[in-house]
Design a protein that fits this description.
Blueprint (H helix, E strand, L loop, with lengths): L1 E5 L1 H7 L1 H4 L15 E8 L2 E8 L10 E3 L11 E3 L4 E4 L6 E4 L3 H9 L2 H18 L5 H4 L7 H4 L1 H19 L10
Antiparallel strand pairs: 1-2, 1-7, 2-3, 3-5, 3-6, 4-5
Length: 179
């Protein structure tokens, strides 16, 4: 588990089209000084979650709070809503950094935030599959990375599953059942 900053030129080039949007959901890179938590690899992509000093407007379900050990900041957290996705071969644009020992240790010790992050992705897929507009779907940078994370396929699969379950409950279809 490591922490990084992202090269600012790469950041601006990588998400140039997103930054042109009126209400984009990507967090600013602070001229290359924003720290990121190197979360996980999905589909050979690296997911970077930004560390925020003030996450007070983000729902508890969409962040991992670090206030317990980072008392000098307003509402510090790892923010799931503003993630970035880069290709594994672009990791040369990441520079490893060292966070305050207490914060780093706390994050490393509490790996439950990874499960919370996966739950966030599953909630996003479910809401998209059900065509529900929620803060999870509207205010998430996941919407920019469907292709990279293969989200459209997962959303359609979930949508089919929900539809089949509804049809079976209504007694309309029984041949989809598996033994």
């Amino acid at each position: 588990m490591k922490f990084y900053i992202l090269d600012n030129n790469f950041y601006n080039k990588k998400i140039k089209e997103i930054l042109k949007l009126k209400d984009y959901e990507i967090i600013r890179n602070n001229e290359g000084s924003r720290p990121y938590f190197y979360s996980v690899d999905i589909n050979n992509k690296i997911i970077l979650l930004p560390l925020r000093s003030n996450s007070s407007k983000i729902s508890r379900a969409n962040k991992f709070r670090t206030k317990k050990v980072d008392k000098s900041r307003t509402s510090p957290a790892i923010d799931f809503t503003s993630l970035l996705v880069i290709n594994r071969n672009e990791n040369s644009f990441l520079k490893e950094i060292i966070l305050y020992r207490e914060v780093s240790k706390f994050i490393k010790k509490n790996e439950k935030h990874l499960q919370k992050f996966f739950n966030y992705i599953l909630r996003y897929i479910k809401d998209k599959a059900l065509l529900i507009d929620t803060k999870t779907t509207d205010r998430s940078s996941l919407k920019y990375f469907h292709k990279e994370l293969n989200l459209d396929e997962n959303i359609m699969s979930k949508r089919k599953s929900v539809l089949i379950n509804k049809l079976e409950k209504m007694g309309r279809v029984s041949f989809f059942k598996t033994s």
